[in-house]
Amino acid sequence: MKAFYRLFYYISIVLTSILAGVTIAGAFVGNAAPDSFKFMPFIGLILPILLLANLASAIYWTIRWRCWVFIPLIAIFSNWGYISCVLQSPFFSPASSPMVKMNVDFPTFLRKYFPYKVQKISLNAGFTCPNRDGTKGWGGCTYCNNQTFNPDYCRTEKSITTQLEEGKCFFAHKYPEMKYLAYFQAYTNTYAELEGLKRKYEEALAVDGVVGLVIGTRPDCMPENLLRYLEDLNKHTFLMVEYGIESTCDETLKRINRGHTYADTVEAVCQTAACGILTGGHIILGLPGETHDTMVAQAEILSDLPLATLKIHQLQLIRGTRMAHEYDEAPDGFYLFNEVEEYIDLVIDYVEHLRPDIVVERFVSQSPKDLLIAPDWGLKNYEFVARLQKRMKERGAYQGKKYRDSEKRIIFADDKLTTE
At 285, which helix (H) or strand (E)? Predict the structure, then answer.
């Protein structure tokens, strides 16, 4: 009988340790890469049960007066932020704790994939869009002027290799050991024949120091044969596909001449993510006809998609665009967030309803002053982020706080949040 009790004692220690290990892993669910460990979402789902089991284990070892009580206690305290958020405890509030940061920024996200610093280099590979060339419309999106985000080295008369080499020179003086992601950004970077696309992508990957691709495109421009090629490419290099979603409202998409529907977005994002490819999205807040409530509701809708990252930025009126002309004709139909504080509060409301594990790459965009009509806040990106962070702390806000009133997790990473 004594041997049986000793065996039970040792088995209890092992089970306690396993339970604690799984529970501690639950503390990192919010920071885990979407495809890093397939059981992570399940651990997050059963985390309350795991914590109760650890509490029972702590009580058991306390009653037996054994030192092993520290194992379940460590597991419980490693999830103290989660517990306090669920209980709305004043002893550890997201608004006041020094441990609470902004959100997982893109460089932090990339550290899950690379042991070194990585920078995106924008490319203009000479593509167009189906709503520009007559396939689905003419003139492109009513708000679009690609000059607002193309750097000087990014010109169609230059080869992809030349653009990448010049981009490397632009960044290398800061971080000589930096590696790079070739960012196919301008227009629709999957809108061509497959063989031509493969040549462009593979030319970029052949440049020294380029360790992956980020491909910006539209939801209606991902044919099956290209998706199969990207699925295979993803097995050999870092790959992210970034879809221009812009809005979840079909009426808005029609008004801005996108030429696709939100159903196209759902299909493209789900099919791409199902191939194991990291999938990002891009949306614009403040599009004509959309209200504060519809924009906030959009966050919940997008949260149903298997998005790994999301870029958010305010609507900007750019000179020479059709939307700028529409504004001149009927300015009452636009609301441009001329006060930055109002946009900050909208962003906070938005991210509170956003799924906690989505990495928000940016909150705001900056266009060249000579092209920008409004809004002009006179803020650098880092200045905007500082104001946003300050306001979030004032409001006790964090990403996912109101997401379906479900699990309230903090996934913020570094105070020094970088945006593009």
Answer: strand 278-285
Identify the CA nearest to 14 among candidates 68, 58, 92. 68
- The secondary structure of 96-146 as a DSSP string is T-TT--S---HHHHHTTT-SS-EEEEEE--S---TTTBSSS-BS--TT--G
pLDDT, tens digit, 9 for 90 and up, residues 19-55: 788 878 766 644 444 344 445 445 555 777 888 888 8
E strand or H helix that includes residue 21:
helix 2-26
| Integer angstrom CA distances of residue 218 from 131, 341, 389 | 10, 31, 31
Q: What is the dihedral of CA 342, 299, 111, 379, to 10 degrees?
A: -20
What is the token pair recorded at 283? 């949306």
Cβ contact 232:205 at 8 Å: no
- Measured distance CA(274)–CA(272) in Å, rounded: 5
What lies within 8 Å, CB to CB, of 232 at 6+ separation is none
Cα 183 to Cα 215: distance, rounded to the nearest angstrom: 6
pLDDT (tens digit, 9 = 90+) per residue, 348-381?
Answer: 999 999 999 999 999 998 888 889 888 899 888 8
